[in-house]
Design a protein that fits this description.
It is globular, with a radius of gyration of 19 Å. It is mainly beta.
């Protein structure tokens, strides 16, 4: 018999700020507040925001990363990416970009030329996933996960669907390759949908309500709010009070020290100093 994961805290009333000139985000959590959400380091929710047509794409220019992965989920709009490993990609509604920075990449992210030209609404999530020490200096990797490749599972008698981006949900395996056990589930619930969702025992477990309103274990949660669940337990009850989109994250804690500075997240201060020097000396590459 599943035992419910109790609610540990609800994070709400998060102010919005801009990343570059293309991403109005609310940072629901960050590693700067400690390693509480191990193995997850940061989550930014951008939009929904209407952009007027522009002559040049908006976004974030050349910058480095080392020691972790970035996961970008697009709900509305279109983004283009390129990095110093030679990877390039364009992702639109329903697509996911999973970039393993690991030993280090330099990259940029902009609205696509088409989106910039036509304008439109942008809505997306960017999640940072930590890597264990043994993998932090592995080779960079880029996974472009298109919407058609992401399996969807109906639950709550068809009143809710779960897109399985990473991990496993009721036997459906997500296409993302991960270094540690992680689940990333994108859920949509119709009004009055009622679902008992099984979660792994011992995992860090987070539920982000992006839109609508739900009750989690009879606790009301609104958009845009994040719920941290206790690691003990194996399920959570979701009841939609209005049509809702919910992102569910679970991950096996890595349990290692986290030392970070801006775009670098390692295990020691010495490794951070080395990352800064490697970037300055061009050892993470450059964009042409």
């Amino acid at each position: 018999m599943p035992t419910k994961k109790a609610i540990r805290q609800i994070i709400a009333d998060i102010p919005q700020h801009w990343v570059g000139d293309g991403f109005p985000v609310r940072s629901l959590f960050s590693y700067s507040g400690g390693n509480r959400f191990d193995p997850f380091l940061l989550l930014d929710y951008a939009g929904p925001h209407r952009f007027e047509p522009a002559e040049a794409p908006r976004g974030v220019g050349e910058h480095p990363h080392r020691g972790f992965e970035t996961v970008t989920i697009v709900y509305q709009g279109e983004l283009e990416h390129r990095d110093s490993s030679g990877s390039r990609g364009s992702i639109g509604s329903g697509d996911v970009q999973w970039m393993t920075a690991a030993s280090g990449v330099v990259h940029e992210e902009f609205h696509s030329e088409r989106f910039a030209r036509d304008g439109g609404t942008l809505e997306m999530v960017q999640l940072w996933v930590n890597l264990p020490a043994r993998d932090k200096m592995s080779a960079p990797r880029y996974q472009s996960l298109l919407s058609a490749e992401i399996p969807s599972v109906a639950v709550a008698d068809g009143a809710a669907t779960v897109r399985v981006i990473a991990g496993d949900f009721q036997g459906a395996a997500g296409p993302a390759q991960t270094f540690t056990p992680i689940n990333v589930w994108d859920m949509q619930l119709a009004e009055a949908a009622d679902a008992e969702v099984e979660l792994p025992e011992g995992h860090t477990a987070l539920v982000i309500v992006q839109s609508g309103a739900v009750r989690l274990n009879d606790q009301a949660v609104q958009a845009v709010e994040l719920v941290e669940l206790e690691r003990a337990g194996t399920s959570v009850r979701m009841t939609a009070e209005a049509p809702a989109r919910v992102l569910v994250l679970t991950g096996e804690p890595i349990g290692e020290p986290v030392v970070g500075q801006g775009p670098f997240v390692m295990n020691t201060r010495e490794e951070i100093s080395r990352a800064i020097d490697d970037f300055r000396q061009g050892r993470m590459g450059r964009l042409d």
